[in-house]
Predict the structure.
Amino acid sequence: MAAHWGRKETIIWPPHVPLMSYSAVAGALLFTCLLLWQQIRFSLPPLEQAYIGDYMRARAGAAFHLNGSYRLVYLGGGKERTRLAFPFDFTRGKMTLPSGKTAPFALTELARSEGYEFPFRAPARKYIDASMYRWFHDVAFGRKSLLAVFAARLISGGVILIALLVWAVPQDIRRFRQMKYGRVLRGPVMLTPRQFNRATKGEGVGFVTTESRRMMRIPRRKEAQHFQIMGDTGVGKSQLIMQILRQIRDRKESAIVYDPACEYIQRFFDKGRGDVVLNPLDDRCPYWGPAQEMESNAEADAIAASLYQRKTDAIDEFFHETPAQIFAHMLKRGPTPHQLAAWMASETELLKQVQGTEMAFYIDRKAGPQRAGVLSSLGLVAKGLRLLPEKDENRPLWTARTWAKSRQGWIFITSSTVVRDALRPLQSLWIDLLVMRLLSAPQPGQQPVWFVIDELASLQKLPQLHTAITESRKSKNPLVLGFQGKAQLEVTYGHLAEVMLSQPATKIFMKTSEPKAAEWISEMIGKVEIERLKETKFDGTRSGKNFTVERQIEPLVMGSEISGLDDRHAYLKLGNNVARFAFDYLDLPMSTSDFIPRKMADGGLSFDPDTLKRIQSECEELRKVAESEPVATVSGDAPIVEEKSPRPIPWPVQQAAKQAEVAPENPSAPAQEVANTATIPDSPDIEEHSEDKQISFDLRS
């Protein structure tokens, strides 16, 4: 059906009567009369058909004790004396009357055997109505009253009347409501879940509501245009996301779930499906390194840009772009995460890595406060890199680069409130890498991947997210974004937040206590143009009524309605269709643990919190063993010799102490020579190369 364009036409004829109901009654009466005429004309026996009018007249006259003229039906035609006709004198068939007309009945064998050939009406004679009514009732109609004669047709007419009133009464109620509150000419339309399903004819992801047994479904073609769920904490956002995840699981599609509260992993993690947990502190986390995500040197800049992002627009870009350049430069040498952290902790190693490039001026010792700011910003991600599993832990290797090709299993990116700040750069980088790898259209045989990001504001700025929302419809990978308010995203994304929030086709708005956010939701749902009829009554020398039509533009849903919503109540907007619905709490069984601590994870306490006594950790024991063994050194351009046992990551204080021990032995040695004799644990065999060349290391090792 073609969509209606422009304003609806107005007919100024507003009678204050239930027109539809009156029309239904008139239509039912007309239809009942047609049924009665059909019965009298074609269904009644011949004698009843001849006397039906007299029967009704005699019934009315008997009530008032009247007399009337009646022409009774007799049988004649033979030599026998005429007599009154009775019902048993007629049967089905056809016969020709003396006038030449063909009658739709025939005389019985009994009547013809008595010598009668045709019926006829006798001249009118006066009779008492009560007597005639009794004779008609007992003889002609076989003791059937008028109501019994027409009972079937009258019941049919009543059923038709009820059916028409069922349709007409709501129409009149809606019409009176429009006359009282106004008629919507343009703008969004408020619908119930059933009306929404009829309007959209959706067959995709849906939501279970309390108003309808059927799910309120979104058209499948609209899924790739993304979902947005906005509401305060505790109003039911997670419940709607769980409904979506359950349908993704039933459809056997893949999902990438950012789960900051570890509530989805407990219900949807499936090891047999090949699911992956990306949390350095979780024992299920695989081995991962940023250098192994690269397919070309140019991608190092994108990885670094994802790690070093400003939290607000007020922070200077220099102290984020410059560390990102240095990090990208080091990443092109193919280090492991712990080697990167070691380089960031060593001033000498940093100077060596950027020597001969324009980045050396950023951290030159003469740069003063600028150098301190760049170094401090550069080391912000070192803590998260140290938390990652080490390569010698015999864990399976995982990269977004390879997963995007197979799309096997789900990915859960989890954390906890305590370590969220430390893990935020890594989590943002993982999501950014996955978005970047999945921007291309799926190949034949590849299934779509759902991005489910709850509490979007808890992540740092994702450079690829804006691209995914605005350009990833061709990739057919839906995004489900959950957050509490518009202000949260504006702090992180600035003016881009307005564009990002307007792109999802399916928007679900729940209770928001923030007044500005509630008003913004009201604006996002839309305004309607309403036409109202104003009636003016006046008394005077001439009484009458005056009607005027006025148009106003009003919000379909006020901001105060958004702020006053109950928990698990929401508005869903898809195009110009707005559905108001409620849903129940969905409690899914928990199939796995939310968090399994990793034994070798960094961040363990070095003392007993009750007694404050120092606890000797396993790392310290390994450090003692390592100190008793020979250490490989780097001299000139010689390759690095592999150590016999793992060594701890040197911290800046320890590195400075080692440099101080080397300096007195050869005070005239240049700084470059000292840097060359610095010990670098587990350093790869690095080949000098220019930035425009391809990667000079094996991604698998």
Summary: Residues 631-693 have pLDDT under 50 and may be disordered.
